[in-house]
Structure formats: C-alpha cells, structure tokens
Amino acid sequence: MKQEKKTLSYYRLRLEVYLKDYHPQLLGDETFIRERSEAAAKTYEEAFLQDNPIGIAESM
C-alpha cells in the first residue's frame, strides 16, 4: 500500500481548519489547498526577508 507523504505546513494546517469550519466542501480540493498554503508561505517569507517585523509579515 503506497501512502502519499504530506509535508506539515503551518499555513496548510491553518487553511484546513478554516475550511473545515467555514467551507467544508473545499476540504477535498487538494490542488486548492496546496496552492493557497504555498502562496501564503511565500508571501510570509518575502515579507520577512524585506525586514518587516514578524507581526506585520504574518498579517500579509
């Protein structure tokens, strides 16, 4: 039996919790979840690298 490995991501977990609470019909959309969580992580990283404080980077 082959299992797909998932990388744990803060942004993925937060998105999945949000979807579970407010948009459960989207929980099965792996592409949507992957793309949105990767975009959020990238936005945070870019904001942090531009010397924004962590609180500001998290809110972007």
From TrEMBL:
User: What transmembrane ranges does the database entry give?
Assistant: none
* Alphabetical list of Gene3D superfamilies matching this protein: PG0816-like
Query: Which is an annotated Pfam family here?
Result: DUF1896
Domain of life, per lineage: Bacteria
List, alphabetically, the SUPFAM superfamilies matched: PG0816-like (SSF140753)
What protein am I looking at? DUF1896 family protein
UniProt cross-references to InterPro entries, sorted A to Z: DUF1896 (IPR015082), PG0816-like_sf (IPR036297)
